[in-house]
Amino acid sequence: MTSPKRINILAQRDINELYELPKFTVEEKHWYFELSNNEQELLVMNASIATKVDAILQLGYFKAKKQFFVFQLYEVKTDVDFLLNKYFDKANIKKTSIARESRRQNQKKILKILDYKLFSKQYHRLSLLTKANELGRLSANPEFIFREILDFLHNNKITLPGYTTLQDIISEALLTEQQRINKILDEQLKSKEKETILDLLQQRDHLYSVTSLKKQPKNFKPKAIYKEIDYYKKYEPLFKIAKRVLPEVKISNNTIIYNANLVEHYTVQSLDRLNERQTCLWLLCFIYQRCQRMLDNLATMFIYTANKYENDVIDKSKELILVDTIDKKEQDDNIAKLLK
Question: Rounded distance, CA 218 to CA 223, Å?
Fold first, then answer.
């Protein structure tokens, strides 16, 4: 398979939150650096105070981020001081760094204590790709897949891989899913149908059809109702294509909604630059959602109009009853005057 283009998944802020060295508050220090009975073996291992401090630091950071960090002790001085005060009678340490082998041994101990496995492309990439492929059938949203994979890693006690590793796995899964869908679209869509779908991106009377479809009715007045009816009549043939093809594609309703929202978000020019089959899929999802919404809008408009007419009839009836009551009272007053 051709190596897929690495897609953007998270905003930089979210990447930093996941992968930056933790900066604990005082309350968080007490929480993450508290040692359970099993974890207290780090205090009695045959090593220098500096190495023990490094082990407890790595353990606390691992509990927070499910990964190991490379750092110098002076870079996390406030955390070091906290541990020296809590566990080592305020001892002083002169070391500012830990030997690589000592750090590696600390990490092995932490993995054993917490029953975690260190992520390995050789042993774990395939299982993550399989999971991503399954998730790709549920949603085309890469962030959804990313978050679900984080849950998968947590549930299976595997350390967090690098961000680019997850990017590559999710990109490959989405490419595989797109290739599956492309094959079905080629089988299901006639050339004329593709042209009709892509015609939504053509300009008519200085306006693109897809742009006008994005606009929702502003109110329930007769003009808006008739406009929705005209839209539905015009695009019903495309709606029928979508209802025929999308079940064959076998994508979830979440994916249909996600693809439809992409059409809402993208400009016509951006949609026109996409792969033709991907554009067809997105537009089919958009038409399917928009026509469903048209029917919902028309039903709501009908209920609103019927209720309005009913309320108007009730108000008019009350008005006529009141007038009739007043007329009868006037007649009774006139008869009373004649009888005097």
Answer: 10
